[in-house]
Amino acid sequence: MISSPQRRPGGAQVTAEGWGWQHAGHHRWAVRDLDLSVESGQRVLLLGPSGSGKSTLLHGLAGLLGGAEDGREAGRLRVDGVRPTEQRSRIGMVLQDPDSQVILSRVGDDVAFGMENFRVPRAQIWPRVHEALRSVGLDLPLTQDTAHLSGGQKQRLALAGVLAMHPGLILLDEPTANLDPAGVVEVRDAVTAAAELTGATVIVVEHRTQVWLPVIDRVVVLGEDGDIVADGSPEQTVRRESGRLVEAGIWVPDGPVPALDRTPPPDAEPLLSATGLSVGYRSHAPLQRGLDFDVRRGRVTAVTGPNGSGKSTLALTLGGLLPPLGGTLEAVGAFAPSPKNRQPARWRSKDLLTRITSVFQDPEHQFLTGTVRDEILLGPKALKRGRSETAAVADALLERLRLGHLADQSPYTLSGGEKRRLSVATVLITRPGVIVLDEPTFGQDRRTWEELIGLLAEVADEGTAVVAVTHDAEFVDILADDRIELPLAAVGSSGALR
């Protein structure tokens, strides 16, 4: 770690003077009266509970908040003394949702896009493309179709596009949330190496601190209202503020681990059974072959494996949203709509809604209404349950997941962590036999993570089978009863239930 900003002269200087932002239609300010100065070349870890305005600050620094129709701004926010919108060529940002940053259809073109926009000489572009992809560990052909990348691969691609631009300010919004453990370290080291080479200033938002503490100079902690509650050197700040950080929902090294009192049934009946299952997309080779496992009532099954191994594809197949490429996936016994209709991919949407529901990796892909409350009531409405019958349940669920104060807001204006909790709530309220979740703990601070874990444990104990695709080791250790571990190899691979 280099602690002296003067040794990195290529970075941008960041200043906020009484700055604040209130999203259009929101009753409270996301950030208010913020005073902050980040010197050229500093590496800052920005911490705070979910919804404290961390992402809003990064979007402001990247010049992405929009105009008066998108919200209300107060104070001044500057990059190298001018408004961020006047410094776009100096600023690179990796957003919380990597899908929103994938622009072109080929990997190489996508990395080159930013450099071409800012007129980097052509002779420099492709050597930078190759170097950036290599630094983030994305070993793919330049012609690879970006539509077929996993969430973690898209995250690496977005980072490669930023690093290739050699920006003076690198903004990272949970850049490792969709990555496998090896990828987390690889991406962190790629950011560190790029900052070392170019002198860039780095501001990174993460809920989990341990991986970034060795490579940053400073920790800044935002409170519930977007105000700064702690600011200082990494080790001293985390040690001095440990109690407050844990209370605010921050993951600190050696923090307390929640315990769950569960006794899952060892001989629970299977609801879904896979035999020789191959998963993937039509016209492409299967991502996995020969999978044999059961999904059992009242048990939590974790699906793990490296990025690109087909975890999300398996989740879509289990959810009846993608047909198998080989083998069988069938409902067992009375869980099927009829004895002759056991394959989830052939079920009607109503049959799925009462039996298997899914939470996608990108929450926005399943939002359909204008308010948080209407979104959570949509499933019961489709099942023709009375609003009065479900309103109290919906409100209680929203409060438990710390979304009650946002009930009248648009789902699209929520933070990444809030969107994830809402997407989970929309499937929990219908209480189907099987719930399939893709990265359910993405974007959660420690408090909301514990509440989500506790809620899923209760759902499982009441008889629902929970299947979760996850890179979250703590989730697996605390909650998983069974595990499907997928290898990276695509053709001829197999996975086994452990």
What do these coordinates show?
With 498 residues, the protein is an alpha/beta fold. It has two domains: 243 residues, P-loop containing nucleotide triphosphate hydrolases (Rossmann fold); 228 residues, Rossmann fold. The chain has 14 helices and 18 strands. A six-stranded mixed β-sheet has the order 5-6-7-3-8-9, sandwiched between helices. Strands 14-15-16-12-17-18 form a six-stranded mixed β-sheet, with helices on both faces.
Short description:
The chain has 498 residues and is of the alpha/beta class. The protein has 2 domains: 5-247, P-loop containing nucleotide triphosphate hydrolases (Rossmann fold, 3-Layer(aba) Sandwich), CATH 3.40.50.300; 270-497, P-loop containing nucleotide triphosphate hydrolases (Rossmann fold, 3-Layer(aba) Sandwich). It has helices at 54-61, 107-117, 122-135, 151-164, 181-198, 234-240, 242-247, 311-318, 349-355, 372-382, 387-400, 416-428, 446-461, 473-479, and strands spanning 14-23, 31-38, 43-47, 71-79, 91-94, 169-173, 201-205, 218-222, 228-232, 270-279, 288-296, 300-304, 326-331, 356-359, 434-438, 465-469, 482-485, 496-497.
User: Are there runs of 5+ residues with pLDDT below 50, and where?
Assistant: 1-8, 490-498
- CATH C-level category of the largest domain: Alpha Beta
Number of domains: 2
Assembly form of the protein: single chain
> How is the main sheet built?
6 strands, mixed
The span between the termini is: 40 Å
CATH topology of the largest domain: Rossmann fold
- How many beta-strand runs? 18
User: Helical percent range?
Assistant: 25-40%
The main sheet orders its strands as 5-6-7-3-8-9
Overall 3D shape:
globular
Query: How many H/I helices?
Result: 14
Overall average pLDDT: 89
Gyration radius (Cα, Å) is 23 Å
